[in-house]
């Protein structure tokens, strides 16, 4: 058992569940679905990650599946959800499901055809687009929304480049979990006014 990893994964999962129930579940259906394509995938990955670190390695493939799903399909959903938040208008069901279809298609290409670069580049492109949308939010007077989005991206960026910044030690795994938890909480805070 790797107790520090279990704890950090449980905390990450708890933050994901908290953000879902307190902030995201109260949004319009399309916004909830788009946010949750990322947040719930991360939460599921953390739950199965905690089980893996608790000494049950059979849970690891499930955790990895949800990690990749969050990275690719969730990344696309994150951009769509951010656009809806910043623009102040919920996306139509057609737009929502089109984005998710694109996300699942990219996921299928990555997993089915071994195109690993999709998994490497999707989060970078998604984070870049969220930053652009956050900056646009400042011009629309949505200062706190934009600030929280930028804080969230900062957490996710640090997590994405964790090995380059923090090295490859065991502690880096916990740092990644805590950074991801901080990013998810920031997404919840960005939606705070919509759910107040």
TrEMBL record:
Keyword Transmembrane set for record: yes
Alphabetical keyword list: Membrane, Transmembrane, Transmembrane helix
Transmembrane residue ranges: 6-25, 37-57, 69-87, 94-114, 120-138, 145-165, 171-190
Superkingdom, natural source: Bacteria
UniProt protein name: Uncharacterized protein
